[in-house]
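Thread title: Can someone regenerate the structure for this chain?

I was given the following input by a collaborator and told the matching structure tokens would be attached. They weren't. Posting the sequence so someone can regenerate them.
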Amino acid sequence: MTTPLIGVLALQGDVREHLIALAAADAVARPVRRPEELAEVDALVVPGGESTTMSKLAGLFGMMEPLRERVRSGMPVYGTCAGLILLADKILDPRSGQETIGGIDMIVRRNAFGRQNESFEAAVDVAGIAGPVDGVFIRAPWVESVGAAVEVVAEYDGHIVAVRQGNALATSFHPELTGDHRVHGLFVDMVRAAG
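Best answer:
Regenerated them for you:
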């Protein structure tokens, strides 16, 4: 696979920024809202936004089961912030009725780094990337614990903020907001290797 086709789940959140970052990382990127669009892509990014809203919209658009099936079958997937929450097998403090896609054996805590007005940027060392990346943390979750199959890819202030399990990658922070496309490049490399 030379140029992978990567979808960005376009139900809510920072879709445009991921489309730009993926294009800069040498992928063809397109928004995905419906099951038939999901079936056409090699991989998927689940963007930041509001995890409860995204969960409800995925249900309304008939996307939750197709998403779970593609992730279970090994489709490469990358989640940022709310996307990390949606890729978790368990949420420590879910909103009533909140569902996840699952796929990463981890327990996450929503809004763990604080409220909107406590958002911040920080340099984060990410395994597989030379030099720190600029992490933008906006009402960001952190990973409370991981299963044996999960690789911790980055920590910040004593908390797990990036993980990988097989073809699934997730970060608490938003690399798509920085202009540094190396995390997206890492994901594109994962998609090529899986292809």
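Helices lie at 15-24, 35-38, 51-60, 64-72, 82-87, 182-194.
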